[in-house]
Amino acid sequence: MKRLNSATVFFISMLFFIGVLTVASLHFFSKVNDQYIMVQSGTKPTRFIIDNYKYVQNKKGLVYSLAFLLAGTSFFIMILLPSEEVKKKKVDEPVKTPAPPIRKDSPISAVIEQPETKEASEETEDEQVALPKPKAIDVLAEIEEDVELDEFTEDTYHEIVEGEDDVVYGTEEITNAAIMDFVHKYPDSALKFLYRKRLDGKAVSSEEEEIYRNWEKRKMFRAKVKAYILSLMEWDKMPQEPLFEIWKRMRDHIYEVID
Q: What is the phi/psi pair of residue 182, to 5°?
C-alpha cells in the first residue's frame, strides 16, 4: 500500500472542504425556502415569512457558505493550474536520449555497445575493439612511490594520539601515526584524497582540492596514504575496481581487524 504524501493529503482535504461547503449551501438554501410561503394577492403572488428569526439566520448561513465555497473553489483551481515557471521548464527541457546498453564484463566500467553497421556485422566478437576503461587508476601513476612500508608498523599505530598532528582537526605537521588513524576512521576520505575522485567516480570539488593542498603542506602526501593502504590491505598494488568497491573492502577489513 502506497503512503500518502503531503500533496495528496492537501488535495483530498480541499475536495472534502469544498464538498462540505456545497452541502451546507444546499442545506441553508432549503431552510430559507421553508421559512416563507407564497400567497396569491391580486394579480401577483405575495411572500409571507413564517419565522423571521430563522429566516434571517438561515439566510446568513447561506451567504457565508456560498462565500467560502467560492473562495475555496477559486483557490483550488489556482493550485491546479500550472505556473509560468513550470510551463517554461517544460518548453526548455531538453529531450533526453536513452543511454546505450551496458555489459557486465568489466569491473570498472562496462563496454558500451555500438550500433551495428555493415562493416561491424562482418567482424567477429574477438575482433571488436572495446572502448578504453576510465582512467580512475591512472592517477596513481603520478605518485612517486618513495615511501617504505616499514614506516607504518604496529609500533607506529600505538603512537596514535589525537592532537595537533590530526589530519582533520590539527594544524601542525601530519605524522605517520596520524595518517594511519585517518585511514582507519575515514577510509572514504582517504581514497578521495588519493584518487582526487569521489566514490561515484566524479571529480572532487575545488573546495575539497583546497583542503587536500593544505594537508600536503602539512606533509601528508598521497604516496604515504597509498603506501599505508597497501600495507593495511596486504596488496601489491591498488585493485582495478571502482572506488566504491575498494572502499567497501577497506571498510570491512578495518571493521574486522582494527580494534
A: -65, -45
By the 8 A CB rule, do 36 and 53 touch? no
The CA distance from 2 to 41, in Å, is 65
Of 218, 224, 259, 203, residue with least CA distance to 144: 224
Task: State the amino acid at position 69 in one-letter form.
Answer: L
The upper half-sphere exposure of residue 158, i.e. CA atoms within 13 Å in the direction of its Cβ, equals 3
Strand partners, 41: 44
Distances (CA, A) of 91 to 19, 86, 98, 121: 36, 9, 19, 40
SS3 57: helix
**Beta-carbon neighbour count of residue 75 at 10 Å?**
13
Q: Which amino acid is at 33?
A: N
Predicted TM-score of the model (pTM): 0.44
For the segment 69-124, what is each residue's pLDDT rounded down to a tens digit?
Answer: 888 888 888 877 776 665 555 555 554 545 445 444 444 443 334 444 444 444 44
pLDDT digits (tens, 9 = 90+) for 118-161: 444 444 444 444 444 444 445 565 565 555 555 555 555 555 56
Distance CA(259)–CA(255), nearest Å, equals 8
